[in-house]
């Protein structure tokens, strides 16, 4: 094994399960005990507090503060330094003007992935989907968008049943899908930010197969400004930060005028400051009358930005919670429901 005095780890646990992450952190502690200096970059703040001796907070490319880890009494202090404002301001107030049903899904199923999925989303509402990895949440959203073929069920918008054979049909119906992997499925990284923002709306900016790139650039800059995109919108998307890349994906769908937006893991891999801005954008879209669906593996995220939460397990919806009923324990119980035997479930019901 190569013996090195310094190891730099950049988001080493981002793609790991909790068990795998714990194993890696044990190795990090062992290396530290052997005298190896480790630079550990992570957005998982509890990991940072649990493993670091000193913590440096960066924001906007500048060092904000370096402090001893033991000087932090709770994670909220760290978040406040990262965001630049009190933790209470991380999650903006929910929109309270809820309108009529915009999107209605009934009996949606895809063999081997999910079955009998029913839900409605209203104008101005943020509906969350919780569940374990493999619960079927992403597959449901891809099916609604036409990226995957269903075996049954209906998708209706404002009372009219849709025939969605592919993403083109969904886009034409005003449905947008922001995938969980923005680099793989949300962006064309070699294109500029402006080109990415305009990709779903090119038909508006030309005729006879010719595109007016001057109009595209002007429209993209306008959207980027409204989303507080930081950086050069004409530079390749691959050069943008994770937060700015997510804004490009959001901007692409804002430009289409979609009034149903599905966010799949909207804050994965972006820093706390960028998360706060994404939450602000979601609430801004909801306040404008859009119907929003958010799929997230982060329970605090769902608990603070949603009006209702659906919980999926083993391909089925197991529970639905309204805002006053939100409970981490109830969500987790429903998330594990599809993986429990009848005998396992009995004590929970009795209690």
Largest sheet: 6 strands, mixed
- Overall number of structural domains: 2
CATH homologous superfamily of the largest domain? P-loop containing nucleotide triphosphate hydrolases
| Residue windows where pLDDT falls under 50 for at least 5 positions | 342-351
* Number of extended strands: 16
Order of strands, widest sheet: 10-13-14-7-15-16
What radius of gyration results from the CA coordinates? 22 Å
Helical content, roughly?
25-40%
Structural class: alpha/beta
Q: What are the secondary-structure elements, in order, as H or E? A: EHEHEEHEEEHEEHEHHEEHHEHEHEEHH
Helical stretch tally: 13
Mean pLDDT: 87
| Oligomeric state of shown chains | single chain
Describe the model.
By secondary structure, this protein is an alpha/beta fold. The chain has two domains: 6-87, 3-Layer(aba) Sandwich (Rossmann fold); 101-342, P-loop containing nucleotide triphosphate hydrolases (Rossmann fold), CATH 3.40.50.300. Helices cover 37% and strands 25% of the residues. It is built from 13 helices and 16 strands. The strands form five sheets. The chain has a six-stranded mixed sheet, with helices on both faces. Strands 6-5-8-9 form a four-stranded antiparallel sheet, with helices on one face. It starts with 5 loop residues before the first strand and ends with a helix.
